[in-house]
Task: structure prediction
Amino acid sequence: MGHKLLIAILLSMLGVSVADAQTCQDVITTRQSLMKKSGAAGVTATAMIKGEIPFDLTKARAIFATFAEDVGKMPNLFPDCSKHGKNTTAAPTIWQYPAEFKELIAKFAADVKAGQDNTKDLDTFKASIQDLSHDCLSCHERFRVRRR
Result:
């Protein structure tokens, strides 16, 4: 039996979930992975808006699905222990102003849902992506440390 499987079984016997047993660096890595995935979806959205690739409603829906999946996981990926870690760009303001941070995540989630509901063509897609871009910028300005 593998070492990780044995640990997971032992933890579950003790009533501790595997998610709870994740290290803080695992949480940081997970949130970085989600941000990269959302960033890649944003690049595709921008290319469609600029006409670099043709608008495709199926791709647009996939972009919103990526954002929805990621934003659904984000609120749980900032435990106190993840303030510091390898290559994290999460700003201390996340933990200093958690209500404001959660409000921005909730606004992004609502705007993703609106985009999913309202996108029918390129023009409605552009409008939704513009709202989401503003949400991202607002959050990153306040709650992200720029790498130098």
The chain has one domain: 23-143. Residues 14-19 have pLDDT under 50 and may be disordered. The radius of gyration is 18 Å. The CA atoms of residues 45 and 60 lie 7 Å apart.
